[in-house]
Write a structure and sequence with these properties.
By secondary structure, the protein is an alpha+beta fold. It contains 16 helices and 24 strands. The chain folds into three domains: 211 residues; 222 residues, no CATH class; 181 residues, Glycosyltransferase (Alpha/alpha barrel). The strands form six sheets. A five-stranded antiparallel beta sheet has the order 6-7-8-9-12, covered by helices on one side. The radius of gyration is 26 Å and the shape is globular.
């Protein structure tokens, strides 16, 4: 038995726990991660609460779990399981908490990650790998006798493998670690193990002080968020998930390069990264964003096309938009001047590629056929509207960049090219005979890039009937429409699947169009499809509440959530700034507060404080001053008028919402749908 030492185990402050209510976790395969910013690896925690330490990226969860750390507790040494719901300290920190009972004995576990104690400067080692990629995963436990008589507490921490596909056996667990306690009523005992990702010969961390390292971990992550923009809304789940999305990004990032996941999709994707970097920018995490944008400039081919996944043409337009977006939100014209030649070279590729088809072809003027991931058209024989939409957006972004750095004639030339491209898109659409834009011009595939019409920047007018028809198609007609407020995705073997983060593109189109009540409803459906530790998925097999391929926490899923919340509060629309464009009415009820502080926008930082009063809504606004918008619009429900006036701000009284959507309400709606389905 190891020497016992008091451990500062922090408790959960979740309101539902305090009320004795089990926190809602949508997923049967609920995963979490603890790790450090920009390290190559992180420790995934399985749905049954094993810790995957030291497994290679790409190893399947089923295989890796055979070389994971398993925790057994109680007199019968029962393993932790899905019955114990994971939570996060303070609702968002990467410190995972869970509890279990064996009769009157309660077991409280805390998992977190730290640099190795041997690093020269532990403060900087939290922020960036200082001495290789190795780090410690801590498992700490407090065992408490809540009964009236003496009881025994037992704990065993062991390796479940090894398995040949693990990079190595779990270090320091070649022999199980066992703890036995005789506890008087009301008394507790504490113990811990600390495990490096990579074995260290002769290492012994038993003399380390876990309370010290836990405190350092908490202080570090709080300091990161203290330097970021503040976003607080009256919904606790929404605010905590927003902060957890930032943490998810920073742990999955590897040396500044944004990756799609930790242990899965653990590589750079231009497609995913475009929204990920937007989330960092809008969060005010500018150091991380500055490092991340470099990956885009490094992924340009000799022919000018940006690419991260072979022959997927949307990446080219997404890279151009991401570079433009970075310049707009930072206001860094010098950076834009340096990046512009690469942007222009990528546009040259577009101009050449879309002229490859003969003039009399049905596909004249649009991009060539190519494989498509999102649309699940891998044969390469289809022409993808989403590729055209993104590359049109890329030309428009480059034209705006040219004008910003004084290349007026070049900007005009690019706008003429964009107009010709738009004409080719219109022609290809007419030949489909459809009222809406399909996934491919051949009318095959599942919906994806074709839904990115008004978002992240509009390439069609908000009242374009093709946009309206597409929103109606995916929401109400395609395979019966949205399920659980979410678009269906039908590629390959993924039947009975919904796709929350791709659904967000349609939700954002509604935001741009001013459909606030629809946005609020779908915002809460998005929140529903998360874990109790605020992990978001990729696709979801909704009938069994299972994220496909165990893709939780999915970084783009987290990023799209954070971006959606931010734009509900602050939304750039061309040269206008729209404030509170789509929020729940109840966030403005008397006593409720919204705080947005030092939030970067295209026009400069914004600080906004909103408080509901008995008479209406009080708003304090520190508007952007770097490049003031031509118009600022504040949206308030008819029943919640503005107290006083806001200089330079137009106030629009929108309709009151007919339904109150909040997290308990969406859970109740979900259970109601489940009950109706089971009685059919």
């Amino acid at each position: 038995m190891r020497q016992l030492r008091p451990i500062l185990l922090l408790s959960c402050c979740c309101a539902t726990c305090a009320a004795g209510v089990e926190p809602f976790d949508y997923f049967e395969n609920s995963w979490s991660v603890v790790g450090l910013k920009d390290y190559a690896h992180g420790t995934r925690i399985t749905p049954d609460n094993k810790l995957m330490i030291g497994t290679e990226a790409g190893t399947s969860p089923e295989e890796a779990s055979k070389a994971s750390v398993e925790i057994l507790f109680g007199r019968g040494l029962s393993p932790l399981s899905r019955q114990q719901t994971k939570l996060l300290q303070d609702g968002w920190l990467p410190v995972v908490l869970l509890g279990a009972h064996d009769g009157p004995v309660r077991y409280d576990f805390t998992f977190w990650a730290t640099p190795l104690p041997s690093v020269d400067d532990w403060r900087t080692a939290y922020d960036w790998p200082q001495d290789g990629e190795n780090f410690l995963t801590w498992i700490a436990a407090r065992i408490t006798n809540t009964g009236s008589t003496a009881s025994e507490g037992k704990l065993r921490i062991q390796q479940t493998g090894p398995y040949e596909k693990a990079s190595h056996p779990v270090p320091a667990l070649t022999a199980p670690q066992e703890f036995t306690f005789s506890l008087q009523p009301g008394r507790s005992a504490e113990c811990f193990v600390a495990l490096p990702w990579t074995p260290i010969e002769g290492s012994d961390f038993s003399r380390e002080k876990p309370e010290v390292w836990l405190k350092r971990t908490v202080q570090y992550w709080k300091s990161v968020m203290a330097d970021a923009a503040t976003v607080r809304v009256p919904c606790e789940k929404a605010t905590q998930a927003y902060l957890a999305a930032h943490v998810c990004q920073l742990i999955a990032s590897d040396h500044g390069e944004l990756h799609g996941g930790e242990g899965f999709y653990d590589q750079f994707y231009i497609r995913d990264g475009a929204y990920q970097i937007m989330e960092l920018e809008e969060a005010g995490l500018q150091n991380a964003a500055r490092k991340a944008i470099a990956s885009y400039l490094a992924h340009q081919r000799e022919d000018g096309r940006f690419e991260s996944q072979k022959n997927q043409f949307d990446a080219n337009g997404q890279a151009l938009w991401a570079l433009w977006q970075y310049a707009r939100i930072t206001g860094d014209t010098l950076w834009l001047e340096a990046a512009y030649p690469q942007m222009r070279k990528a546009v040259d590729w577009i101009m050449q590629a879309r002229r490859l088809a003969p003039a009399d072809s049905s596909f004249a003027g649009v991009l060539p056929n190519a494989p498509a991931d999102g649309e699940f058209l891998w044969d390469g024989n289809h022409h993808i509207p989403g590729y055209d939409f993104w590359n049109l957006r890329g030309i428009l972004s480059t034209a705006d960049a040219a004008r910003a750095i004084g290349k007026t004639e070049e900007a005009d030339k690019l706008l003429r090219e964009a107009a010709e491209y738009r004409g080719a898109i219109d022609k290809a659409w007419k030949e489909t005979g459809l009222a809406y834009f399909p996934p491919s011009w051949e009318k095959e595939g599942t919906h994806w890039g074709n839904t990115e019409t008004l978002w992240p920047t509009p390439i069609f007018s908000t009242d374009d009937p093709r946009v309206t028809a597409l929103m109606e198609e995916v929401r109400t007609r395609h395979l019966g429409g949205f399920i659980e407020g979410t678009i269906q995705w039908t590629g390959g073997d993924y039947k009975d699947a919904i796709h929350p983060y791709m659904s967000a593109y349609t939700t954002m189109a509604s935001l741009v169009r001013g459909e606030h009540e629809k946005v609020v409803e779908e915002f809460y459906w998005y929140l529903l499809h998360s874990t109790a530790t605020h992990g978001f998925p990729e696709g979801v097999f909704y009938q069994r509440r299972f994220a496909w391929s165990n893709t939780i926490p999915h970084v783009t899923g987290a990023s799209n959530y954070a971006v959606l919340l931010r734009h509900m509060l602050l939304h750039e629309q061309g040269d206008e700034l729209h404030i509170l464009k789509a929020i729940p009415d109840w966030w403005l009820e008397p006593g409720n507060e919204i705080a947005v502080e030092n939030a970067p926008t295209h026009f400069g930082p914004v600080t906004l404080h909103v408080r509901g009063t008995a008479e209406g809504v009080r708003v304090n606004l520190n508007p952007p001053r770097r490049n003031p918008p031509k118009r600022m619009v504040l949206y308030l429900p008819e029943s919640r008028p503005l107290n006083g006036a806001l200089k330079g701000v137009e106030v629009v009284a929108r309709s009151n919402q007919s339904t109150r959507w909040d997290f308990p309400a969406i859970i109740a709606e979900y259970h109601s749908l489940q009950q109706k389905s089971s009685t059919k």
